[in-house]
Design a protein that fits this description.
The protein is α+β, with helices and mostly antiparallel strands and 334 residues long. It contains seven helices and 14 strands. The chain folds into two domains: 83 residues; 167 residues, Immunoglobulin-like (Sandwich). 14% of the residues are buried. About 5% of the residues have low confidence.
Length: 334
Amino acid sequence: MFATRAYRFILFSLLVLLILAPIGVRSTGPFLAGATASFLVLSGIRRLTRLWQSDKEQFWKAVWFLALLSSSLTASLLFLRTRGCAPIHPLGPPALLLINRCSMRLDPLSSSLRTLTVDEEVEVDPKYADHYLAGRAAVIRQPRRRLTTESRGPFLLIVTLAPPEEDRSGNAVERFPDGSTGRPLIFWYPRTRSTVEWTLSDIPRGAFFSARNAIVRKRSPYFDRETVQLASIDPSAGVTIALLRPPANAVRSLVTPFLSLWDFGVWLFWLLGIGIGVVASTVMKPAFGDLAKRAIASAHDALTKVRKAPGPKKDIEQASRDELKARRRKGKRS
């Protein structure tokens, strides 16, 4: 009897599973779990009812077995929960450190501007520093790193970088009461309170071309070198800086009109226009030229013929005059 009911239950579950399968796992999983649990509970209640009616000793043995099984399962789950979870941090999950100011200094390794060194320094808000960085410096300097610029055509160099998201030096990390450390704290750059500054130091004069998500605050030239200070518009976003590759910076005014040609879309339309011009000049020009010459010649001939040939009114008048002269001659003869 139990096997028959289990077979029917499995068939019914498979049928509903096929119906709910297009909806997704999130719907079929809870359904199967609830259906299985209800089936087992109802079947167990029926079996216990029959044991109570037939053999009470076996009934109490089954009850004690179920109670022991449920208590052991509950204890195992509680034990795994307490051992599997990480200790609770007194400050909660990894915190956000509010950054008041972030300054990034970029120095070229050579006059070619192919490689830049980056020195970063972040200043944590005093309230956040007192709470999360007790006994540690609020001004955090990051380890120096290098960036390689990306070529964009023969004249431009592009460099993209963003303010640090976490402390790479290992200073701003979680610290637990027992002295152990955890994950790094996350740097937070709100637009209304944070300032991110970029400094291009000692680059060739005229090499700075433009910047995305930044405005120029100050340019300090010195002979053939200069220092450019930028301020980020959106502190949390990165900045993209375009530099003129030396020696193009020395002829900046001559190179600037051709910089947009190195965009792929502009190049495509430019080449398309060149192709159309070549086709028009080599193939279409002779054919259209011959047609135009023929049209002009035929129009010229038609105009000259109209001028030489008498019009229809003149023909009628001339015929009437000839007829009148003929009548007069006949009258004189008669």
